[in-house]
Structures are given as structure tokens and as C-alpha cells.
Amino acid sequence: MAPNPKVVAAYRAMANLGIHESKVKPVLKKLLKLYDKNWELIEEENYRALADAIFEEEENPVPEQEQEKKNKRVDEAELDDEVQDQPLRPKKRLRLRGPEFQSSNNQISCGPSSAAFPLKTPKLEDDTVPGNGSILHAQSAAALSDGNGMIEAHQVHSQDDIIDKGKKPVSPQVTPRGRRSTSDGVPPAVLPKEPAVEPLSTLSPRSKMAHPLVWIKPKDEPIDDARDNEAPISMILPEPSSGKDSSMMNGAAGQQDCDDTVASHCLNDEVAGEDNLRSSNEDAPSTVEIGSSPVQEEGSAKITPNISMPKESESHDALVAGGNEDLVTPCISNGSANVNSHSSLPNTEIPVSLPCSCGLDDTSPVPQEVGNNDCLASDDGRELVDPISNNSHSLVTVPKNQLTTNAILTVHDVNDISKGEEKVKISWVNNITDDFPPSFHYIPRNLVFQNAYVSISLSRIGNEDCCSTCIGNCVLSSESCSCANKTGGGFAYTAQGLLKEEFLDECIVISCNPKNCFYCEDCPVERSKNDDCSEPCKGHLRRKFIKECWSKCGCGKKCGNRVVQRGITCNLQVFLTSEGKGWGLRTLEDLPKGAFVCEFVGEILTVKELHERSLKYPKNRKYTYPILLDADWESGGVGDKEALCLYAASYGNAARFINHRCLDANLIEIPVEIEGPDHHYYHLALFTSREIAAQEELTWDYGINFDDHDQPVELFGCKCGSKFCRNMKRSSIFSLPGSNKYTSSAAEIRKIVGCKMI
Ligand SMILES: C[S@@+](CC[C@H](N)C(=O)[O-])C[C@H]1O[C@@H](n2cnc3c(N)ncnc32)[C@H](O)[C@@H]1O
Description:
Blueprint: H1 5-16, H2 21-34, H3 39-59, H4 64-73, H5 76-85, H6 90-96, H7 112-116, H8 138-144, E1 154-157, H9 159-164, H10 205-210, E2 213-216, E3 233-236, H11 260-271, E4 287-290, E5 300-303, H12 312-317, H13 328-331, E6 396-399, E7 427-429, E8 441-442, E9 447-448, H14 482-488, H15 501-512, E10 517-518, H16 524-529, E11 540-541, E12 546-547, E13 572-576, E14 583-587, E15 596-600, E16 602-606, H17 607-616, E17 627-628, E18 644-652, E19 659-660, E20 667-673, E21 683-688, E22 697-700, H18 746-753
Parallel strand pairs: 7-13, 8-18, 9-16, 12-20, 19-22
Antiparallel strand pairs: 1-2, 3-4, 5-6, 10-11, 13-14, 14-22, 15-21, 16-18, 17-18, 20-21
Helix pairs in contact: 1-3, 2-3
């Protein structure tokens, strides 16, 4: 009989490696048996499997009888262990790296990634040959490696081996994001990028061989171990000792309803969210993710301790602009999420800071920069997740029927509602109820929603608009720089970074004096209403601007004329007010007069966009208050794209919690130019108008005219408690035509706000 050309070719290939036919023959026979005479697999990579097997045989000769016995003894658990325990065998790999053994398609990587993450050489010992074998398929390993060092080591089992042993196939259930179920008890694995491994169930028999089951050495890093039937909710624990307030330790839990679509989206998206764990969270004892797939959920969704938070971009996905009002009814009171305690929960459970959808409108548009996802609150108002009373990990059960609508995955860390976006942490506390702060996305800087024309470009900054020749700290210079001149003849700030008293007092007086109002001929606010019965302009305040130095200036970053751009530096806390104003913001430290507290940050909308939103989502008219950037409208010709306002219901910073106080508020808003020379877009900075003691609530006068019901937002019943309250007492001095917060005379203003000068 003519020799089988395939056998001859195999002998030749091995002869090239210096392996004698006599050694090839028995191993080849075994391989043919193992591969069910599939020559393709044997021929692959220039007979790599054959060569490997021969080397193995050489190194670990096992008498055939013993081998058979061993095969019988080895149960599946032992098999797993042996595979895990196999030492790495670079020696073999080195041999195979000879040029003659390089795969023609270069599937075996010898590059840095394989050096950093050496592949485990197959152990073709007696107990790993047919029936038990663990064989390294280099091509599978190559397929698994994303080139970025994702994989530390691979051990490849023949699938048949595992299934034949009667063990459940340990196919990693790879979701598009790489999530895998661990419910089968398989060691947690860190999987490479999503296309790397198909679930075995989807593979053809051929690809099962070429693409065998792969185990990846677990890393020490957090593993997303959430099961499919867990709800995708995130939570962050308070620091054990953080907060002067004991209620911070009474962590409360809230819950979003989540419809199937969104839930599964959330599920997948959350998996990759580890990088959203910000550094300050590292201080916290733990961060917990609650995973879920309500679709598959039978009775309840379990909230399991885990380690990741949704990515910012993914949280954005879950958030929809448009205010928190639509969704408030079932879930919030005074803008906060209701959470009820569940006494049956073991006290080993963790405080959960879960958002409610208050703050969000599932149908409102989102800023262009962020994705879209629909989110709703529970529509029955029942509690969904239990508040828990200490820091230990445990489970919280969420009834399945409460996971029916969209979920919001935004979470407020009790230690830092800013999620690390600010230089200082901003904690939140609720001493009164179990409520949570409303859900919103913390943004440290304004974001354009869609149409607002905000053009920031260096080319638009002329020499007169910056101090390009300055050096160091402008404020210390004896001469005013160009920026100071734009502020109005001198620096607004002292060397200590406070507002100069004269400047501040002037601002206070201006803000209270109706004489400083101007009236537009063609008011963008009225124009935005686009109806036949537009009213005349109701008046806007002329204001004093601050011009800060910026990138095109020659001074350094520490220049004293750069205050607002440095962001929040004082110690603030969000808290639930006791007067029924909802949440408020307070200082935890004494603040001097003229100190910068924070900027009012939100979505930059055109006034028209705001009006459209308020028509489309009428319930949004509650709970939020848009701020017109109208200080420069007097210059006239303000186009629709330039008539801007800030809206912080869904995207905002700590300032969104600052409540209104009529007239004698302790903060004052001052327009600040930073990046650009024009005043149609500016930053609205809040400074202390007097000294403020630690624990005092921060307030500012929104400038509301409580008699004007034609506003884009619903008026609230003012509970500011000021004796000058415009809502409670309508004294004649506070109801001047066109006025919002103005009083009648400079003398009165001086008395009220304690200014030294007028
Ligand atoms: C910018 S938010 C302030 C934070 C808000 N309290 C919360 O819980 O989210 C403005 C809203 O707070 C409430 N608010 C602010 N000042 C108030 C006051 N003086 N009296 C009653 N409610 C007030 C109103 O509902 C208003 O629409």
C-alpha cells in the first residue's frame, strides 16, 4: 500500500525538527485518535500540536497502562486542578519559536505581549492526552490576546474533555461587554475584548476544536461577579468616620424602576464601568454595584456587593435632560428620593445611596455631548430598596415587579456628590428623612445643550482682552493689567483671593436697585414665546463683571486674578432642609465676606430651548430655576442663539442645591468672564455677601418676582424665612414695577445688607 502522503508529510516536518520517525509514530497515532482523524488540526501551524505532543512525551514518558489507569482516576475536579497547576514551560515554547516552526500566518506572537503574559505550554502528559488533555492552541491564545496584555495566561481544554466528564460545560458567558456569569462556579475571569471568545454553544464542532474553551487566570482586580438576575444599580458607601452627622451612616437606599430594554443596556454598560471609580472613592470602604437583568429575573433582583460604578458616559446615558420634575411624584418629596427601611434586612447590609429619577425626565432631550437613555421613577411609589444601617456587605432584595421601567444609575456618593469632579469633596446628609438627593449628573463646568452659541477661541481674544505681557501674579502688581481694566479699573480680588469690599458692596447695591434695570426693545425672553401676545420686557439687571486672567495671559496659574476658574475650594455639604425647601447647601467652615463659594453650573440652553422644554414638559416647571445670562442684553441685537440661560435640573453642580432667600441672602451672584471677551456667555459666580458661619445654609436671591406667573418654571411658595420675603409679605418697597428683588432706596439696601458704601 502506498504510504499515506499526510503521514509522510508529518514525518518530514518532524524530521526537519530532528525528530525521528519512531518517536513521531506513536504520538501521531494518539493525536489522530484525539482529533478524530482531523488532519487539518494536526497540520495546523506546521504540525505544532504534533511537535508539542512529542516533546511532552519525551519529557514525561508514561507507560501506557499506567496512563490508562490514570485516565480513569482523574475526575473533572482533578482535571481542573491539574490544568491550573501546570507550570509554565517556556522551554517548549522557545523550541517552537525556531524559524522553521513559525506559523505561516504568524498567529504565534513572540512580541511583547506574549513576553509579558507568557502562554502556558500545553502539557501533553499521559493524563492530558485524549480524554483529559489540555492543549494549548496558540491560535486561540492569539485570538484571545488583544495585544494589550489583557490576558495573563491561557489554559486550553478540549471541550470534549470537560463535557465528557459529565461536568457542566464551563463556557464563559461572554456578554458584549465581557461580562460572564459565574453562577456555574467557574473561577472569575477577566476577559479580553468582546469578540475574543464566542460562547461555546455558538461554535461549530470545528471551531470548538480550533477555539477551545479558555480559562484565563483571574486577576487580582475587581471582578464583576453580578449574576444575570441582579439589578443594575450602583451604590457607594460612606466612609466610616466621615461626616459629622450620624445620619450619614444611616445610609438610605433608593431604587429606580428599570424596563427591560434599559435594564439590559444598563447591565452591559455597567460591566465596564470600573474606571469610573474615582480616586476619592478609594477612600471609602467599598463601592458596590448591583447588577441585574430584570428580563431573566424571576422573583427578585439581588443587589450584591461589587466593585464598580457606571462610566460617566454611561451614567449620562441613563440620564435625560429636562428636569427632575416629571418624575417626582412617586419617588421624591421636595426633590428627593423616598426610601423606607426594611426591618427584616440583616444588619450586615450596607447603606445604599441609590438615586431616584427625580431630576430626570425620561422624554426630555439630552445635551448633545452625552448619550441617551430613558429613565423613569417607580410609578407606584413603593419603596424599592431598603436603607441599611451599617457598612457591611450584604444583599438587598428588590422585588421584580418594581423593576418594570427605566433605571437611573446615577448615584450620589454620600462622601462626595461631585464624584471627584471638584477639588474638594462635597458630602450629603439627611438628618430628617430617609430621602436621597435628587438624581442628576454632577458637572463641574457648563455644557452646551444644543443650539447655544458659545464660541471660545483664542483667536477671538485680542491683546486688549488679555494681559499677555504680564508675569507672575497680576494682583500683586502695582498696575492694573488689561484684565483688571476690563473688570472696571482695578482688580476685583484681594491678594488673599477675596472680593474687594468696595467691589462687592457695589455689586450688592446694584443687584438690589431697580435703577439698574434695563428693558429690551425686543426681549429674547418674550420673543422665545413666539406668540401673538408677548408682553413687554420685564427688565434685566445691569451688572458689574469680573474679568479673570486666562490662558492667553502671561501671568501664572496662581495669579490672584484667577479665582472662579479654580473651582470650589471651601468645604460644602448638601443637606435636607428642615423648613420644607427640599435640599440645600451649607458651608462646613466659616467663610469670610467676599469669598468665592461656587459657580452656578448647568446646561447652557438658549432661552428658546428653555421655553420649548417648558412647553413640552410642563411638569418641569417645578423644582428648578433657570438662570438667565442676561447681563449684557442691553447691548441689543441679541440673537436667539446668544440669548442664553443655565439650567441645572439634570446636569449641574453643587449650586443647584442653593435655595432662594429674598433680599438678605448670604451669597451674591456676579458675572465672571474667563475665556472670552464677550458678555453674552459668562460664568455666574456666587460669592459670600457677608461672613458666614460653619453650618449656615447658603442662599442667594434668585430674583424671582412672585407676582409674575408667566415664567418658564412654576413658582414655589417661598419659605426663605427672611423678614423681607417677597412672597409672604408684599411690602410696597419690594413690589416695584419690573422689579424682582429690588428695594427702593440705597439707604434701605445699605441697612439690609450692611454695605459700607453705596
Ligand atoms: C435650585 S433648586 C434648590 C434645591 C432644591 N431645594 C432641591 O431640593 O433640589 C430650587 C428649588 O428649591 C426650592 N426652593 C428654593 N428656595 C426655596 C424657598 N425659599 N422656599 C421654598 N422652596 C424653595 C424650590 O422648589 C425651587 O424650585
